[in-house]
Amino acid sequence: MSTQHEAVILVSCPDQLGLVAHLTAALHEAGCNILDAAQYTDTLTKVFIQRIHISCGHSDDPKSLQEKLTPLADEFQMKINIRWMDETKRVAIFVSKEDHCLHELLLLHRDGDLHCSIDMVISNHEDLADVAQRFGVPFHYIPISNSGDPDAEQQQTALIEDNNIDLLVLARYMRIFSDTFTQKYNGKMINIHHSFLPAFAGGKPYHQAFEKGVKLIGATAHYATAELDEGPIIEQGVIRVSHKDSVKEMIRKGRDIERTVLARAVRWHLENRIIVHNNRAIVFS
Amino acid sequence: MSTQHEAVILVSCPDQLGLVAHLTAALHEAGCNILDAAQYTDTLTKVFIQRIHISCGHSDDPKSLQEKLTPLADEFQMKINIRWMDETKRVAIFVSKEDHCLHELLLLHRDGDLHCSIDMVISNHEDLADVAQRFGVPFHYIPISNSGDPDAEQQQTALIEDNNIDLLVLARYMRIFSDTFTQKYNGKMINIHHSFLPAFAGGKPYHQAFEKGVKLIGATAHYATAELDEGPIIEQGVIRVSHKDSVKEMIRKGRDIERTVLARAVRWHLENRIIVHNNRAIVFS
Amino acid sequence: MSTQHEAVILVSCPDQLGLVAHLTAALHEAGCNILDAAQYTDTLTKVFIQRIHISCGHSDDPKSLQEKLTPLADEFQMKINIRWMDETKRVAIFVSKEDHCLHELLLLHRDGDLHCSIDMVISNHEDLADVAQRFGVPFHYIPISNSGDPDAEQQQTALIEDNNIDLLVLARYMRIFSDTFTQKYNGKMINIHHSFLPAFAGGKPYHQAFEKGVKLIGATAHYATAELDEGPIIEQGVIRVSHKDSVKEMIRKGRDIERTVLARAVRWHLENRIIVHNNRAIVFS
Amino acid sequence: MSTQHEAVILVSCPDQLGLVAHLTAALHEAGCNILDAAQYTDTLTKVFIQRIHISCGHSDDPKSLQEKLTPLADEFQMKINIRWMDETKRVAIFVSKEDHCLHELLLLHRDGDLHCSIDMVISNHEDLADVAQRFGVPFHYIPISNSGDPDAEQQQTALIEDNNIDLLVLARYMRIFSDTFTQKYNGKMINIHHSFLPAFAGGKPYHQAFEKGVKLIGATAHYATAELDEGPIIEQGVIRVSHKDSVKEMIRKGRDIERTVLARAVRWHLENRIIVHNNRAIVFS
Predict the structure, then answer these.
(1) Which of A192, B261, C160, C273 is the most buried (most CB within 10 A)?
(2) Is C197's CB within 8 Å of B213's CB?
(3) pLDDT per residue over D12-57, tens digit each?
(4) In the prediction, which pLDDT does B146 show?
């Protein structure tokens, strides 16, 4: 007896006539039914991008689908990424001392709203060990002597590799990784940081925002890249402030919007809704 | 020499395996390239809905596409609605005395942001004749003795039919149509009305909203149906108010959100982004 | 040696000339400095309302301020409510099975963002005992046989009275109180409930919202009164949904907005920012 | 017989004990009733700021109030700004070719929602002459050879001074003024500009925003200062965009948020709700 499998396929290739027809036909022949499909054509770079949610009734190994699509992929120079829904993605959460983003992710996961396992919390401080423990998640304390500390990164990498981690979430992890590390996990590491209109250079951004009298403060979730806080933007949000808000209150409101925006970005990644093209994150909502 | 035509196709039919594959293949055979496609399956009623944006290089009558898809439509009980982009939709705007929604639509149209012609403004008052005139739009004054006035509706219907109007926009038209009229233009008439949390029965809603001390006021754009203010919801928006806002100020804020929400609904309708299924408006954004 | 005390005073009385001058002078004579003041005059009922944040350097009992203001209060028919900041308000949280609102309040409290003690969690189910326990808050399981169950209300009242509870927060407590109970805690009990545009009567509101295809779902925090979900509105919020959101996803989004809106309402109450006049909650932001 | 006059008073001075009491007493003695008052103390600079809305029943010249408050102002180093509501502020609007902000202001003014007269439109292009004309506002075409063109600024200044203009609104006026000009109208000139998270340097900001794949675009209204786009922020707003929005569509959405944000800033300025302290705009809402 065969069981039904669902998968999300992300496809990108140079745009050309008949792509959708060929891809659809190939999936049909492979015994797949299309539950949902969304596409986007980048008109500047002439690149075709499609997200296809399928179900397959095959008794054989679901991985054989990749092979069945290989001739088509070769013909059209397609990059094909298949995510089977019955494979659980494995997530590691990096934190420092603040737990608002960590709590958000743990609670969402517990309620079944994040399609993954949370396999570990890694921190450069011991403060949040008990939060991880309460939710039954292993906590790894790896102190950092300075940014890009090679010993610490080696320990982190070992944990990630030994546990086959698929996604790293930087949930207010206040340390910078080396270029080697960010490149290794390119497209697999999501960061959250505060954002302001206009943007400020230098330290103590909330103090600067207060001094400028901004009326909105925001947060941006993005894939982490070597250039700090410059990777492809997944999601953004803002919250209103006024002259009455002290720096402390602005930081509190900032936490509120950070956790919400980060959680959306992580959920979309886990649902294979995001494809990065030309340093832009295309999000199929 | 052939010219390129673009069209948006809205399809709905009972859900079944292979629909996307068959439809895509039929469009490919008909010489169409798929520029964008989005689909939705209503899991309660098992109905498949798809919006497909195509381009066709055919030299022959674009209307022949409908014929080419007929066998498929018959086989799968498909409703197929094709909107060719080089056919301009014709719009009539109904107003009474308030012009904020009218101005919004006329300015958007002038800036090329509404894909239609605005063929006439119809009103039960003469107040806004000069606004229509400034934008070069014919203005028809049709006084109404009482709601559902058959003489007035006859004149309105004659204007609409004689001018092959495709869409009626009720831009703060403060009169009620007869059931006959609303049924005749079912799915072709968009209305805007204020909305509150919670909703109020009875007259003077802004006064009631003030008395209840609501913190948000909203607007809903929907297709007009026989049951007043109950048709399929196309778009909604809200704006924040406080105890400091007088009834007058709340009405002003309400106008702000009404015009924005109505304009979005009209634009989406003209881009064939909306399909009504089971009294719900599915909006392909 | 005298210490400095801060207080928030809420004043309401029939409007008349010179009120601010007299009140300000009386506070000045009583040795108070005004840190912040905001006022509102209800033009319909001719009622003057003011919130005054003061500091006092007196060595004597801060409660003597009330006495010093008595002559003024008598002269102008003033209701005066003084909340000393160094008195901690005592809060009881009522829950059933859902913990998103409870977690929000416990985390905010732990971070020092709620000016109160959380003295107990009361529930008609045992599910959330461990959440309360983790945060070191006593948990009281009081099962309810039917709405307005007099035995249960007697136990609840005993707990509230014995512990001098100042505020009851209904954080998704899914049972209805008797009129006696709601009247007893009038203005001291905050509830959160979902809100929709338009509103729906009857059960399963999220299913109805899905069927109507609403584009926004909301939440309203209000003081609980005998008429269910009809008390003075403290705060409201909305979140965007689309036809793609299943009922489950709409409920998840609803939880997100509920916890945020409830937390704001509770914080404002604890900061003595709210005065109810004529069934409207005036919120001094 | 005396008539009733209303005024808004903005006060700022070094913070000290008893300020509110003294000021309130002085206003009471001067025969003023306080309709509304809001205050703010900048804790960093120890500066007290208050906005007081009063009514006066005096038969004598309302300007005498300023004199009556002089002793108090001297004693406490107060800056006192009195705006009588029966004096109409005079406004000049500067535009180039885009009219969305101009239309917004003209329509709001026509509806009685801006407490001012609109005395002229000044432009470096002739395109919008007919818009001004329709609303009966004089249009002055002053071409600009290059930024800070002294001849043009001389003509502009002459118009402003000869007509006793109180407020200059830069409603998408795409030219830069000289430092002399901006200093002359410091605190009397409101500008609107697009804002992004993060901000972009260089030209074509919407193209950059598109390339970065931002999810929000915003607008900031501020007082114009010598440093372009860096003056005190009055109001900010954002609107959501996605990868589906073309640069053209992003510009359209940007226009939508620009006009709304600018109109709010202008309305608040005209209601004397804004005081600039330490390069921050304190807005009493």
Answers:
(1) A192
(2) no
(3) 999 988 898 899 999 999 889 888 888 888 888 899 999 999 988 7
(4) 79
Same domain, D135 and D209: yes
The token pair that represents B284 in the structure block: 């392909």
* Chain B residue numbers touching C278 (CB-CB < 8 A): 211
Contacts of B9 in chain A (CB under 8 A): none
Report, as residue numbers or ranges, the catalytic residues of D: 229
**Is A179 in the same domain as A268?**
yes
Report which residue type is found at B59. S
Q: How many domains is chain D partitioned into structurally?
A: 2
Strand-strand pairing, C89-95 and C79-84: unpaired
D134 and D21, same structural domain? Answer: no
Whether residue C252 and residue A103 make contact (CB cut-off 8 A), yes or no, is no
Q: Using CB atoms, pick whichever of B21, B35, B40 lies closest to residue A41.
A: B35
- Band of the pLDDT at D1, cuts 50, 70, 90? very low
Choose the mutation target among B236, B244, B245 for the interface with C, i.e. most C CBs under 10 Å: B236
Instruction: Give residue B60's pLDDT.
Output: 57
pLDDT computed for residue D228 by the predictor: 64
Same domain, A121 and A230: yes
If residue C182 lies in a helix (H) or strand (E), which one and from where to where? helix C179-184
Residues of B with a catalytic annotation lie at: 229
The structure tokens listed for B278 are 């089971």
Final residue in a domain of this structure, among B32, B49, B84: B84
pLDDT digits (tens, 9 = 90+) for A148-163: 789 999 999 999 999 9
* End position of a domain, from candidates C35, C58, C84: C84
Tokens in use for D97? 């070719």
Q: What's the CATH code of the domain at C20?
A: 3.30.70.260
pLDDT at A159: 98
User: In terms of domains, do A77 and A97 share one?
Assistant: no
Instruction: Say if residue B62's pLDDT is above 90.
Output: no
In this prediction, what percent of chain A has a pLDDT beyond 90? 68
Binding-site residues on chain B for chain A (CB distance < 8 A)? 17-21, 24-25, 27-28, 33-41, 285
Could you read off the pLDDT of B224-247 as tens digits, one per residue? 998 766 799 999 999 999 998 999
Contact C236 B215 (CB under 8 A): yes
The nearest alpha carbon in chain C to D32 belongs to C18
Domain ranges, residue B250: 89-283
> Regarding beta strands D139-141 and D116-123, do their DSSP bridges make them parallel or antiparallel, or are they unpaired?
parallel
Residues A128 and A69 occupy one common structural domain: no
In this predicted structure, what is the pLDDT of residue C1?
38
Strand (E) positions, chain D? 5-14, 32-42, 47-56, 79-84, 89-95, 116-123, 139-141, 167-170, 189-196, 216-223, 233-240, 274-277, 280-283
Enclosing H/E stretch for B34? strand B32-42
Determine the Cα–Cα distance for residues A165 and A185; give it in Å rounded to an integer: 10
**pLDDT mean over A34-45:** 86
Residues of C in contact with A101 (CB under 8 A): none
Partner-chain residue, chosen from A20, A27, A35, that has the shortest CB–CB distance to B37 = A20
- Which of these ranges, A181-195, C75-89, D194-208, D247-261, has the smallest mean pLDDT? D194-208
Across the interface, do A238 and D235 touch by the CB < 8 Å criterion? no
pLDDT over 90 at D142, yes or no: yes
User: What average pLDDT does chain A have?
Assistant: 91
* Residues contacting residue A246 through CB under 8 Å, at least 6 positions apart: A210, D43
Picking from D35, D108, D262 by the largest number of B CB atoms within 10 A of its own CB, the best residue to mutate is: D108
Shared domain for B78 and B93, answered yes or no, is: no
Domain identity same for A35 and A105: no
Contact criterion met (CB below 8 Å) for C105 and C266: yes
ipTM of the complex model = 0.88
Chain B residue numbers with beta carbons less than 8 Å from the beta carbon of A18 are 28, 33
The answer to whether the beta carbons of residues A42 and B43 sit under 8 Å apart is no
Comparing alpha-carbon positions, the chain B residue that sits nearest to A21 is: B24
Q: Do A37 and B39 touch (CB under 8 A)?
A: yes
Provide, as residue numbers in chain D, all residues whose Cβ is less than 8 Å from the Cβ of A229.
198
